């Protein structure tokens, strides 16, 4: 995913920043080497060094560097009455405070700079042998103050822009993290859905095969034809399970969300409840039930009948009632062993049924039936 962090404006790295500051301070310091040969003499050279050298650390110690530069500039106003080349360090220091320090410290540096502009203007007018009149003082003060204010404004603007870009980068990173979290949640939901489908298909088919195989094994010595019928049922059930498994794999491989075949629904309930020990009352397949609710109805009946075959006992009878009104109601109950049955596998199936029904705003109840057996009741509003 492309983020603002990959498109943000070009920036110097930490090493580049150090080289830039060293180059700037050195470039400003080199012309100061000629100051001892001017009227300012060695005193002027010392002041120039004190003003320019702190610029090497202006980025990471902006306030301290500014304090040294301002002190040296104040000393210049006392010791010399003419300007020095090194005074260019003052607006650079003001910019650095406005750029790298807090807003309050930047405003304090600006205030000191404006006061210094007045003092420097007076010293320059007197140093150049002029009379202390308003016009030259105002002219010098305006020029110096404009430079100081410009340096402060550029620094404050750069700091504000940096904070804005950092906020955008942080926001884009948060959006990326949220998107990744949503993808992970969607993947987890999809895995849970596939697990429910696999459980419903495999558990139903295998439980039928196991029941028929056990019956055939016990009945074969007395009546081989029963074993033949059981083997036929096993074969049909196995084929049906393979067909459903292939359909599910087709759904996973297909880019078409409808898959290779329609999902089972109300029209498929008749084949699901076929059997000598199941009494069923089913609605019309053309009842206008949404596909998702119809699939959930099918899976609830399928899982409930699977549990009947696995836990209720060989002689248990089941009753299935599915009705469609302002809601789809499902009732599956048996007269088998009920709560005394082994719990292996039942918990996962019930959890899957409850998740499916809850996803459609419905409710599901499962538990022992009065008078014996087990009862599963679900209701999904339309």
UniProtKB/TrEMBL annotation:
Domain of life of the native organism: Bacteria
Localization per Swiss-Prot or TrEMBL: Cytoplasm
InterPro entries, A to Z: DUF7134, HATPase_C_sf, HATPase_dom, His_kinase_dom, Sensor_HK_TwoCompSys, Sig_transdc_His_kin-like_C, Sig_transdc_His_kin_sub3_dim/P
SMART domains membership: HATPase_c
A Pfam entry, by short name: HisKA_3
Reaction(s) catalysed by this chain's protein: ATP + protein L-histidine = ADP + protein N-phospho-L-histidine
Start and end residues of each Histidine kinase domain: 299-382
GO molecular function, one term: kinase activity
CDD domains: HATPase_UhpB-NarQ-NarX-like (cd16917)
Gene3D superfamilies, per the entry: 1.20.5.1930, Histidine kinase-like ATPase, C-terminal domain
Cofactor(s) needed: [4Fe-4S] cluster
Chain ranges passing through the membrane: 28-50, 62-78, 84-101, 108-126, 138-158
Keyword ATP-binding set for record: yes
Record key words, sorted: 4Fe-4S, ATP-binding, Cytoplasm, Iron, Iron-sulfur, Kinase, Membrane, Metal-binding, Nucleotide-binding, Phosphoprotein, Transferase, Transmembrane, Transmembrane helix, Two-component regulatory system
EC numbers for this chain: 2.7.13.3
Biological function: Member of the two-component regulatory system NreB/NreC involved in the control of dissimilatory nitrate/nitrite reduction in response to oxygen. NreB functions as a direct oxygen sensor histidine kinase which is autophosphorylated, in the absence of oxygen, probably at the conserved histidine residue, and transfers its phosphate group probably to a conserved aspartate residue of NreC. NreB/NreC activates the expression of the nitrate (narGHJI) and nitrite (nir) reductase operons, as well as the putative nitrate transporter gene narT.
PANTHER family membership: NITRATE/NITRITE SENSOR PROTEIN NARX-RELATED, NITRATE_NITRITE SENSOR PROTEIN NARQ
Protein name as catalogued: Oxygen sensor histidine kinase NreB
Organism for this UniProt entry: Nocardioides mangrovi
């Amino acid at each position: 995913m492309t983020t603002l962090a990959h498109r943000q404006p070009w920036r110097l790295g930490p090493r580049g920043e150090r080289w830039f500051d060293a180059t700037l301070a050195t470039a400003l310091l080199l012309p100061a080497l000629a100051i001892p040969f001017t009227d300012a003499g060695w005193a002027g050279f010392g002041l120039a060094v004190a003003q320019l050298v702190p610029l090497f650390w202006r980025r990471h110690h902006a306030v301290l560097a500014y304090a040294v530069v301002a002190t040296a500039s104040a000393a210049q106003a006392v010791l010399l009455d003419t300007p020095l080349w090194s005074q260019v360090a003052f607006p650079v220091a003001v910019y650095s405070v406005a750029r790298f320090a807090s807003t309050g410290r930047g405003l304090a540096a600006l205030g000191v700079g404006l006061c210094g502009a007045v003092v420097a203007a007076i010293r320059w007018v007197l140093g150049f042998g002029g009379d202390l009149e308003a016009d030259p003082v105002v002219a010098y003060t305006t020029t110096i103050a404009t430079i100081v204010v410009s340096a402060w404004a550029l620094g404050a603007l750069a700091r504000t822009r940096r904070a804005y870009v950092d906020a955008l980068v942080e926001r884009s990173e948060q959006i990326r993290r949220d998107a990744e979290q949503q993808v992970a949640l969607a993947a987890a939901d999809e895995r849970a859905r596939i697990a429910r489908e696999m459980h419903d298909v495999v558990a139903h088919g295998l439980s039928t095969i196991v029941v028929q195989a056990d019956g055939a094994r016990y009945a074969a010595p007395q009546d081989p034809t029963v074993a033949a019928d059981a083997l036929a049922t096993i074969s049909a059930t196995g084929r049906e399970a393979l067909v459903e498994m292939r359909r599910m794999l087709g759904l996973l491989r297909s880019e078409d969300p409808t898959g290779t075949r329609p999902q089972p629904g109300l029209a498929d309930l008749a084949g699901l409840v076929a059997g000598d020990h199941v009494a069923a009352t089913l609605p019309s397949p053309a009842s206008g039930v949404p596909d998702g609710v119809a699939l959930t109805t099918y899976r609830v009946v399928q899982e409930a009948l699977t549990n009947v075959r696995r836990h209720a006992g060989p002689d248990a009878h089941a009753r299935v009632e599915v009705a469609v009104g302002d809601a789809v109601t499902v009732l599956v109950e048996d007269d088998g062993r009920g709560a005394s049955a082994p719990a292996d596998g039942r918990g996962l199936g019930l959890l899957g049924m409850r998740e499916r029904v809850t996803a459609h705003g419905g409710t599901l109840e499962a538990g022992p039936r009065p008078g014996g057996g087990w009862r599963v009741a679900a209701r999904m509003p339309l």
